[in-house]
Predict the structure.
Amino acid sequence: MKSKAGKKAKASKTQKTSGARKGRAPGPRDKVLERVLSEVTAEPQTQHLEQWVQVPCPYCGEEFEVHATSEQDGQTMYEDCHVCCRPVALLVHAEEGELHVEAHRS
Ligand SMILES: [Zn+2]
């Protein structure tokens, strides 16, 4: 009687562990992939910056916020002024860990 009870307990234990293994397998792999991807895309020298910068509109003088990231460093993006809706050229440049945006008439 005692031996039968022991066998039953062992059987249920092995079932539980195998089920857990099946569930765990895909999870960590995905996380590792995400990590590798972010390490590859991020440049080692320049840290990733992302911030909202207030710029004065070159047309109407009203300030509005634009979203800039360090990937846009040295690039010009175009956005309509939030107040007068005229197209503004925004020159992004990163300096000492901060993002600056220059607004020009486009
Ligand atoms: Zn404006």
Q: What stands out?
A: The chain is about 35% helix and 35% strand. The helical segments are 2-24, 26-41.
